[in-house]
Amino acid sequence: METDVPCICPLCRGTAEVAGVLRGGSPTFQDREYTYWRCAACGFVWCDTEPAPYDDDYWGTVDVRWQQRDGGIGQVSDFLLPLGVGSLRLIDYGCGKGTLVRLLRQHGHDAVGVDAFEPETDHTFRTVERTGFAPGTADAATAVEVFEHLSVEEARAALGEIRSVLAPGGMLLITTPFVDVAGPLVPQDWWAARPPWHRSLYSHKAMRRLLTEGRFNWVTFPDPAQVALARSGPPLVMGGETAEDRNRFRATEAELASLREHCARLQERVERVRRLWLFKAYRALKRLLRR
Ligand SMILES: [Zn+2]
What is the value of pTM for the model shown? Predict the structure, then answer.
């Protein structure tokens, strides 16, 4: 592909230009160059490449500890864990090795994971159908660091699958390295682009478009800034929603505020337990030294 010729955005059909050329993000791919394009209209950044396998080469480049604490899983659990015990039927789409699913289960949620590239276990499945969740019955779905791996076509199909399992008004939480937060693409030095795995980098505007097209509504980008939150149908016409719809979705904002309060309290409890544990360890050590 000639890199000086503008090309067409697969999301909005706007005109795109080269955003940068990067080397592959693992030893296997470091000698190859990947061209990323940016749409002038919607800010979507993408690389037109085939997906690479999710093998040891891939997992070796993933900073799992960062992902869990500050990245996607940390951000999603901030929202979901304070929701109480046994209260939600959840599906984690693109669950990888099932870390978030295990965490949610520990907190009493009825959670299952879906990942076409990982082996099946007692709580993770290859397809949505195999989860055993009946269509339209899940309260919430999460997609943690998944959409950057998919082409636009694959992302549309993924949203269709997620929508099929969500109850009307069900919540979808997406984390992905949004370009609004990650900043402009600088060749050779841009953490969000990891070719050939990260093929799609969304602006908030582009993600809103993808979700709205996929019949998700009330798209918001709450803090932490790498999170998109949306609700599944019914499809709303601008200004044509019923009072009932408005009330249902308005309650969500209050719900979010209360979630943040819960999070703060949870964090306090964790700190208290940690201090207590330190105090006990200190006393035990003192007793030992006295002998
Ligand atoms: Zn576009």
Answer: 0.75
H helix runs in 90-194, sequence order: 99-106, 152-165, 179-182
Residue 111 CA to chain centroid, in angstroms? Answer: 16
The pLDDT tens digits for 149-179 are 999 999 999 999 999 998 887 888 888 888 8
Extents of the domains making up the chain: 56-181+204-235, 244-291
Question: Ligand 1 centroid to 206 CA: how many Å?
Answer: 7
Tell the residue number behind the tokens 């093998």, with chain if given: 55
H or E element at residue 143: strand 138-144
Whole-number Å distance, alpha carbon 10 to ligand 1 midpoint, is 7
Superfamily of domain 56-181+204-235: Vaccinia Virus protein VP39 (3.40.50.150)
Average pLDDT score over residue span 211-234: 73
Q: Read off the pLDDT of residues 103-137 as tens digits, 9 standing for 90 and up.
A: 888 888 899 999 988 889 999 999 998 999 999 99
Q: Cα(32) to centroid of ligand 1, in Å?
A: 26
Coil, strand or helix at 181: helix
Q: Residue 243 pLDDT more than 80?
A: no
Residue 13 alpha carbon to ligand 1 centre in Å: 6
Distance, C-alpha 33 to centroid of its chain = 26
User: Cα dist. 140→72, 143, 241, 276 in Å?
Assistant: 16, 10, 22, 35
pLDDT surpasses 80 at 18? yes
